[in-house]
Design goal:
Pfam family, one: Thioredoxin
Strand content: 5-15%
Distance between the termini: 83 Å
Organism: Clitoria ternatea (Butterfly pea)
Radius of gyration: 24 Å
Keywords: Coiled coil
Protein name: Thioredoxin domain-containing protein
Number of helices: 7
CATH class of the largest domain: Alpha Beta
Length: about 210
């Protein structure tokens, strides 16, 4: 096809797309023009209610410790933390360099994703949880939703196998596990990677009690 013909085809396609966009905008403007004062007031009220609910959520999240990356003092406190927040990322750590690298990234993500609680727990001082949740490699991130361990990020294998991974890479992995929301999203439809058997924290407690009887 000659160059002139190609340019003509491209120009027609661009004009077609531009016309479609213009038509869509015209439709939206026309729809707004058809709204009366009562409709506009209803829209405004609905928007205000949405903003109010979000503000209440944010206030509650902050009161629970969201937006900060904090350490859980003991195994006992772990249970109250995961029951209080719908979404929790718990870093099981020990005093070593890889865990300090993970700390750095989680501290940043805690500030960016207020919808999720980010905490850490010393695995060596938490033998009960380490055994029940089968924590072996450190660092390990337990992805907890509605008080159930839903997923794990074990070591750095899923982050390029090196301690030089970026915060964005970890963010993407946690978003894939649906424990954080990316900007502009209220939910994620990504398939979960690495199917994990869900273990209820409450169930683990009951099982431990049964074992001791």
């Amino acid at each position: 096809m000659e160059k002139g013909k190609i340019e003509e085809v491209i120009e027609k396609q661009v004009l077609t797309v531009a016309q479609a966009v213009e038509d869509k905008i015209d439709e939206e403007i026309a729809a707004l023009d058809r709204l009366d004062s009562d409709d506009l007031e209803a829209l405004r009220e609905r928007r205000l209610q949405q903003m109010k609910k979000m503000a209440e959520k944010r206030s509650r999240w902050i009161s629970l410790g969201h937006s900060q990356y904090s350490e859980i003092p003991s195994e006992k406190d772990f249970f109250s933390v995961v029951k209080a927040s719908e979404r929790v990322v718990c870093h099981f750590y020990r005093e070593n360099w890889p865990c300090k690298v993970m700390d750095k990234h989680l501290s940043l993500l805690a500030q960016q994703h207020i919808e999720t609680r980010f905490v850490k727990l010393n695995a060596e001082k938490s033998p009960f949880l380490a055994e029940k949740l089968k924590i072996v490699v450190l660092p390990t991130l337990a992805v907890i939703k509605n008080a159930k361990v839903d997923n794990y990020v074990v070591g750095f294998d899923e982050l390029g196998g090196t301690d030089e991974f970026s915060t964005e890479e970890l963010e993407e992995r946690l978003a894939k596990a649906q424990v954080i929301f990316l900007e502009g999203e209220s939910s994620l439809n990504h398939a979960r990677s690495g199917a994990q058997t869900k273990r209820s924290v409450r169930q683990s407690t009951r099982e431990d009690s049964s074992d001791s009887e």
